[in-house]
Specification:
17 helices, 83% helix, mainly alpha, 2 domains, globular
Length: 502
C-alpha cells in the first residue's frame, strides 16, 4: 500500500468535504444566524453525531479493521472458520440490533436527554419543545450514519479509503440543498423540518452508495441472524474498552454544550470555531491516522522497529510541516476569516468577535491533536486498546476541571482553554508510554525539522499579521491571496529544508 498516496486521497476528499462544509455553514449562518433556530438544530444534530463517534468511526474502526484484516489473512491461509463476508455481516447485524434498541430508547427519553445536554433551554419552553421534536426526527439519522461508518471501516480494511472519505461531502451537499429550500419559508418549524429531512435522505444515500461499492468488490454485507461467535465475544470485549474512552470524550462534549447553553449564542460560537479548527486537523491528522493503522500493524507484527520508527517520524514531520503554519494563520487571521465567511444576513459582528476568540485559543491544540493520532494508532496497532482509553479519561477529566474552574470568570471561553490543556496532557501521556515500551523513538531529523517549521511559521504569522493590520485584507479575494502567498513561501522553504535535513 502506498501510504502517502492514500493519505493524499483521504486528505483531498476531506478538503472537498470541509470546503463544502464551510459553504454550508456560511449559508447556515445567513439563513438561521447565531441564535434560537441555529441552537435548536445544532443541539439536536449533536445527538446522532455523538453516537456516530461512540459506535461508529470513533471506536469501531480501530477495533474492527485489525480484526477483519487478520481474519482475511487467516482465510487466505485456509485457517478461518467462516468466510469474511459472514464475519462482517454478523458484526453488522449485531450493530443494527443494538441500534434498534438505542433508537427506541432515544425516542422515549428524548425530553430527558435534551434537558441534560441543554438545560439552559429550559427558560424558553417553546425552544425546548422544538429541540425535542427535531431531536426525535434526527435520531433516525443515527441508523444510517452508523451503517455508513461500518461500511467505511470494511472498505478501509480493503485499502479503499477514498469512497469512505468522500461520504461527508454528501451530507454537506444535501444540507446545502436543504438550506436553499428552507430560506424560502418564514415558519421556523418548517425550516427545521426541511433541514432534518435533508440529513435523513443524505444518510440513506451514503449507506446505499457504500453498500454498492462493496458489492462491486464482490463482497456483500447483509442482515443475518446474529450469532454470538468467539470473534463477536472478542470484538465486544475490545469494543467495550474502547467505548469507555470514547464515552468520556462524548461526556466532555456534553459538558461543554451544557456550559455554553447558559450563554445565548455560545453553542453556535463554539460550533463554528470547532468547525474551522477541525479543518486542518481532519485533512492532516485524521487522514494520517486512518491510513497509518494498517502499515504500523504490519511493522509491529514483523517486529521491524526500524520501519516503525521511520513511518512514525516521517508522519510527524510531514504532519507538523502543514499543521504549524495553520496554527499561526488561525491565531492571526481569526477575525477576518470569521467576518468574511459568516458576517452576512442574521450573523452579527458580536458573533464574529466571540467566535474568533474561541478559534485563537483552540488553534493552539492542533499540534498535540495531530501527533496524538500517530501515538494512539501505534498502540492500537500493537493491539492495546486500554491505554488510549486511560489517557483519554485522564486528559478529559482535566478538561472538565478547567471548564468548571474558569467558566465563572470567562464564560464560554473556558471550553477552548480546557480543550488545549486536555490535548497536550493526552499527547504527553501517549508519547511517554510509547517511548517507554520502545514503540516510538524521536529521530534527530524530526527534532531539527519541527523546530525549523515552528520558526518559519512564526515568521509567516508575523507577515500575515502585518498584512491584516495594514488593512490589506478586506474581502475573501484578498484573504485568499494573502493565505496563498504566505503558504507558498513557507512551503517552498520548509519542504526544501525538510528534504536536506538528515
Amino acid at each position: 500500500m502506498s501510504i502517502h498516496r492514500h493519505i493524499f486521497k483521504v486528505g483531498a476528499w476531506t478538503a472537498v468535504s470541509r470546503v463544502l462544509g464551510f459553504a454550508r455553514d456560511m449559508l447556515f449562518a445567513n439563513v438561521l444566524g447565531a441564535g434560537r433556530l441555529s441552537d435548536i438544530f445544532l443541539a439536536a444534530f449533536k445527538l446522532p453525531n455523538m453516537f456516530r463517534d461512540l459506535l461508529g468511526e470513533g471506536t469501531m474502526q480501530v477495533v474492527f479493521v485489525p480484526m477483519f484484516t487478520e481474519h482475511r489473512k487467516r482465510e487466505a491461509e485456509n485457517k478461518a472458520d467462516i468466510p469474511s463476508e459472514h464475519f462482517a455481516s454478523n458484526i453488522f447485524s449485531w450493530l443494527m440490533a443494538a441500534l434498534l434498541g438505542i433508537t427506541i430508547l432515544g425516542l422515549i427519553l428524548m425530553p430527558f436527554i435534551i434537558m441534560v445536554i441543554t438545560p439552559g433551554f429550559a427558560s424558553d419552553p417553546e425552544k425546548m419543545q422544538m429541540t425535542i421534536l427535531v431531536g426525535r426526527i434526527l435520531f433516525f439519522y443515527l441508523i444510517f450514519v452508523i451503517g455508513t461508518a461500518f461500511l467505511s471501516s470494511v472498505l478501509n480494511a480493503f485499502s479503499d479509503f477514498a469512497w469512505a472519505a468522500a461520504m461527508p461531502a454528501m451530507l454537506n451537499l444535501f444540507l446545502i440543498g436543504g438550506l436553499v429550500v428552507a430560506r424560502h419559508f418564514s415558519d421556523d418549524a418548517t425550516m427545521l423540518y426541511i433541514l432534518s429531512a435533508a440529513a435523513l435522505v443524505s444518510g440513506l444515500t451514503q449507506t446505499v452508495i457504500l453498500w454498492l461499492r462493496l458489492k462491486r468488490r464482490n463482497f456483500g454485507i447483509r442482515l443475518i441472524r446474529p450469532r454470538l461467535t468467539p470473534h463477536i465475544r472478542t470484538l465486544f470485549k475490545r469494543l467495550g474498552v474502547g467505548l469507555v474512552g470514547t464515552g468520556f470524550y462524548q461526556i466532555n462534549i456534553v459538558i461543554g454544550t451544557l456550559i455554553a447553553s447558559f450563554q445565548s449564542g455560545a453553542v453556535t460560537w463554539l460550533y463554528y470555531s470547532d468547525r474551522i479548527v477541525q479543518l486542518p486537523f481532519a485533512m492532516i491528522g485524521l487522514a494520517a491516522g486512518t491510513v497509518l493503522l494498517t502499515s504500523l500493524s504490519d511493522a509491529i507484527a514483523n517486529n521491524n522497529t526500524g520501519a516503525l520508527y521511520a513511518q512514525q517520524n516521517g508522519a510527524i514531520r510531514n504532519s507538523l510541516m502543514f499543521t504549524l503554519p495553520c496554527v499561526a494563520g488561525l491565531v492571526v487571521l481569526a477575525m477576518p476569516i470569521v467576518g468574511i465567511l459568516f458576517e452576512h444576513g442574521a450573523w452579527t459582528h458580536e458573533s464574529t468577535i466571540a467566535t474568533a476568540r474561541a478559534i485563537m485559543i483552540m488553534a493552539l491544540v492542533l499540534p498535540a491533536m495531530t501527533t496524538s493520532q500517530i501515538y494512539s494508532r501505534t498502540l492500537y496497532a500493537a493491539q492495546d486498546v486500554k491505554t488510549p482509553v486511560v489517557t483519554s479519561i485522564i486528559s478529559l477529566a482535566a478538561a472538565v476541571a478547567v471548564y468548571l474552574t474558569l467558566v465563572g470568570f470567562i464564560g464560554y471561553l473556558a471550553v477552548p482553554i480546557g480543550t488545549v490543556v486536555s490535548g497536550y496532557l493526552k499527547n504527553l501521556l501517549l508519547a511517554r508510554i510509547c517511548m517507554r515500551r520502545k514503540l516510538f523513538k524521536f529521530q534527530r531529523r524530526t527534532i531539527v525539522s519541527v523546530t525549523l517549521f515552528g520558526a518559519l511559521s512564526a515568521v509567516m504569522g508575523a507577515g500575515l499579521w502585518w498584512a491584516n493590520a495594514g488593512g490589506y485584507i478586506r474581502g475573501i479575494f484578498s484573504l485568499g491571496i494573502a493565505i496563498s502567498a504566505a503558504g507558498a513561501a513557507y512551503l517552498a522553504i520548509a519542504w526544501t529544508a525538510n528534504k536536506k535535513i538528515k
